[in-house]
Amino acid sequence: METQVSATVVQSPDGRPPKADGEAAACSRHFFLAACLLTLVNISVVIYIRVIMHEQEASLNKVTAENQQLITSRSILQTQRDYLNWTLGAILNFDTFPVNVYCPQKKCQSCQTGWIQFQEKCYLFYENPAPWKTWPQSREFCQNKTADLAVIHNLQEQEFVTNNTKFYFDQWHGYFLGLFQTADKNWVWVDGHNDTLQYWVTDKLQTPDTNGTIYALLIPNRNVTANWNRADNKFENKFICERKALI
Predict the structure, then answer these.
(1) Where in this chain does the record put each C-type lectin domain (predicted)?
(2) For a Cys staple, 243 with which of 88, 147, 162, 198, CB 3.0–4.6 Å?
């Protein structure tokens, strides 16, 4: 009598036989390797992008620095050009430029010896002993030095000239400025502009002869904003010359 062996075959829902465990394991390994490879590729791409960005940033910084250096160099050149133009303008004021006076030992200076620089101007405070000069004589003296009587433009300049004047002789004497009164009673500076500062003394020091032109002089040792007084064309005083600085 033969013994019969029966077996039950289990099928998948779609009717196909199930995959073997080995095949499933192989698929898992392939998927893992693919995932690892993709991760490595992503990492490589990120590293590459970061390297490129770093190089671009370094290049941009270099270009920015070079551009800033060019801007600085341009500014320096413009400043040097302006100084040269200013110096040329100052030199052209002379019919014959006194090289030995301005450039002793071949090194140029802004002002002649005895003149004082303030901002872009040179000032000569005439301190010679008496006899001094009338306003017309004072202006002629300044013009012979390629200058003119001082013109006050603002409070800072007024303070400068006041601080460099000294009391002498009496309370009526002072230093002539480049300011005079016209026939229509306007006060005009020698450069042609009307005076707007009006730093006149508050007390009446003297009454000038009104038959001629009236001029302004600065009285030392007085309030800086109230030290101008009037003088006629016969009154002799010291004075202040002014001209452009050379450099």
Answers:
(1) 118-242
(2) 147
